Amino acid sequence: LSLQQGWNQIGDPYLYPVPFSEVNVFDPATLSEYSVEQAAQSYPGILYPIVYSYDTSNLDPTQWSYVQYTNLGVNLQPYVGYWVYATKPVTLIFNGVDTPGASIGKSASASNNTDILAGSKTSSDWRLNLVAQADTGLDRLDYIGVSTAASGRGVFQFSKPPSMNRSLSMDIVSTASRGTEAYGIDIVPPASAQTWQLQVNTPKPNDTVTVSWPSLASTVPHNVSLTLTDPKTGAQVNLRNSLGYKVTTDANGRAVLSISAATVNPSELVRITSVVLQPVSRAAGQAPSAVTMQYSFTGAGSSLLTIRNAQGQIIRTLQPSQTRAAGGQVNGSAVWDLKNQQGITVASGLYTVEISVAGSGSQQTRVTRTLVLTR
Questions:
Q1: What angle do CA 194, 199, 200 make, to 5 degrees?
Q2: Quick one: which of 348, 323, 353, 322 has its CA closest to 336?
Q3: Phi, psi angle pair for 142, to nearest 5°
């Protein structure tokens, strides 16, 4: 099967599944033959170390999306189209198939493939999957991250397969120092700070898109601080304190965001360890006249207390006092006199107290507690 330079759609030529790792790659320019793994090994290689298929199983066509396989041992299924990327014209050679009940099979060693996105090689390596979703589509193919394997060889930058229909898409647009192409995967060498620009495109204007990062807790080390910035509104979001961010596209169906990463000294990481809210009454049996708030956190940072009503509206902010105890723990305290920002006493009801601590760089952590007032 001949492949041209760029993206090619291929299929299993047999009636039974074929492990892609058992396919050979012939390079007519050098008259050399390689395994798939060898062809994808040396970045950028002859083939991208990624295979895509298109999932149409959802009853809602707007939720159809590509599925990404970063282990080249994936089984190619009959009657399914797969996208592979060749950096030069080559030929794929299918070496037959192991049919059910066959007494002789191929060596299992051919399926020994390396997943470039499956876990860290060192403690400083990480990768993060970014997902964009709206009524107009779903894009779950974007990855940013850091790899020591990229040092000295540029970066791991891989484009996406062609769009299958006019729906939502999100691309990673590299900075000027690395070109201006759009990628689905952008893994860079380690540095004290990195920034990725995201471009969201939708088929309709003023579309609301949710960008999320579901794998952050399991794939990014705790000493990496990640901040999303919306240049249009100036909003900044600490990824560790939020499940996602909603952005609205412009009249052309486009929106731009950026994500910055910075490495934080472990001794400076902030973490709230305890929170105690205690209503205070002037006399026993009387309604509370105030609420004392005490909490503790580790690391270096400044804290702020925010009080919201049942509708989520901010009614009061308090700047607490902080003292550092032995062992480096910081103790904070404040007293809420049950008045709003205008000095008016609040009514009985449900309130939320949010304690946020901003550490070095862009790192920030917060906890919330529910408070029921009976007056």
A1: 135
A2: 353
A3: -90, 135
Dihedral of the alpha carbons of 30, 36, 37, 41, in degrees to the nearest 10: 40
Place of tokens 């199983």: 57
Asked whether 181 and 174 are in contact (CB, 8 A), the reply is yes
- Round to whole Å and give the CA distance between 264 and 249: 33
Question: Over the stretch 183-216, which tens digit does the pLDDT of each residue have?
Answer: 898 888 888 788 999 999 999 899 999 999 999 9
Q: What is the token pair recorded at 178? A: 């690395």
- Whole-angstrom Cα distance, residue 297 to residue 200? 37
- Sign, CA dihedral 288-290-291-294, equals negative
Question: Can you read off the two tokens belonging to residue 319?
Answer: 């700047």
Q: What is the radius of gyration, based on Cα positions, of the chain?
A: 27
The pLDDT tens digits for 293-302 are 999 988 777 8
**Among 280, 131, 260, which Cα is nearest to 197's?**
260
Give the number of other Cβ atoms within 10 Å of residue 252's Cβ. 9
- pTM (predicted TM-score): 0.69
Which DSSP symbol is given to 179? B
pLDDT, tens digit, 9 for 90 and up, residues 221-238:
888 889 999 999 999 888
Q: Mean pLDDT in each 10-residue stretch from start to end of the chain (375 residues)?
A: 95 91 94 92 84 90 85 90 96 79 47 52 83 90 86 69 83 64 84 88 93 92 89 89 92 95 75 89 76 87 89 92 81 93 93 85 78 85
Cis peptide before 44 (omega within 30 of 0): yes
- Sequence-distant (6+) residues with CB within 8 A of 262 are 192, 193, 224, 225, 227, 361, 362, 363
